[in-house]
């Protein structure tokens, strides 16, 4: 039996169509469009696909993305802090996202701490992470929020289920574990020092892979009928010498065992972009008082 495909691309298109309507009707009362500023420092390839996709989708939904900047890899921390300060003070900007990782001369926590929590559409400011830990509403990290939305739309009830999260990053692993916990899953966090990973994943009803290692999870590691969410976005050169995007999950073997699986591309990636746009609209509504 072959697993149900959790189509993030189709769901993202539907949510973006809803956001487009929402922005258009808000615009009848508030003339200024929602504004999103994405700062991309250097040329980290992980960020390239993301920036391109965001710009296309953001503009499509009616969000003004003109305050975004692509900055040189030699930028200093002080210069980046000054740009964040300017965007914090700019009334036309509702969302600020600083692409990670940053070049090594810049301390990313110092930058994230500087973003106005009400404009922190990436949900990485300590205030927003604290709200998540306390289970309060607030801006939530885009990739974890996208994972949760995909699970919800597929009607997957998490209460009492065992969920294994692979990876403990601040961008995905830690926040998605908290969100699964909030839905009453029993959450296990696995990482590079975990012993007998396969035994843990085989006990899981839901596996979320967010490590950045192609082929980390294969069919032999999955319990029959489990749900597998692949957050990995790895660019590899295949046997034919062609560059392509793969996740952390060996799709071919896992789809034969799982009950549902996200593809890469077309799974979590488009949902990340969509949650960023949704967060920007949420922040805009709050700031214009709607
Ligand atoms: N502060 C910060 N927040 C992030 O959320 C963040 C970041 N930094 N740094 C880089 C990573 C990477 N990331 C992606 C999101 C969507 C796609 C995406 O839309 N992928 C498409 C494919 C795009 C293509 O085909 O090239 C898909 O999977 O279908 C890719 C990559 C967000 N990141």
Question: What features would you describe in this structure?
Answer:
This protein has 290 residues and is α/β, with parallel strands linked by helices. The chain folds into two domains: 30-118, Rossmann fold; 142-269, 3-Layer(aba) Sandwich (Rossmann fold), CATH 3.40.50.720. It has ten helices and eleven strands. The protein has helices at residues 8-29, 45-61, 77-89, 108-114, 126-134, 142-153, 173-182, 197-202, 251-254, 268-288, and strands at 4-5, 36-41, 69-71, 95-98, 162-166, 186-190, 206-209, 227-230, 234-237, 243-246, 260-261. The strands form three sheets. It has a six-stranded parallel beta sheet. The relative contact order is 0.18. The mean pLDDT is 96. The structure holds 5,10-Methenyltetrahydrofolate (GUE). The site of 5,10-Methenyltetrahydrofolate has 22 residues, from helix 2, strand 4, helix 6 and helix 10.
Q: What topology does this entry show?
A:
Layout: E1 4-5, H1 8-29, E2 36-41, H2 45-61, E3 69-71, H3 77-89, E4 95-98, H4 108-114, H5 126-134, H6 142-153, E5 162-166, H7 173-182, E6 186-190, H8 197-202, E7 206-209, E8 227-230, E9 234-237, E10 243-246, H9 251-254, E11 260-261, H10 268-288
Parallel strand pairs: 1-11, 2-3, 2-4, 5-6, 5-7, 7-8, 8-11
Antiparallel strand pairs: 9-10
Helix pairs in contact: 1-10, 2-10, 6-7, 6-10
The chain binds 5,10-Methenyltetrahydrofolate.
5,10-Methenyltetrahydrofolate binds at residues 46-47, 49-50, 53, 97-100, 122, 142-143, 171, 233, 245, 264-266, 269-270, 272-273.
In summary, what is this structure?
The chain has 290 residues and is α/β, with parallel strands linked by helices.
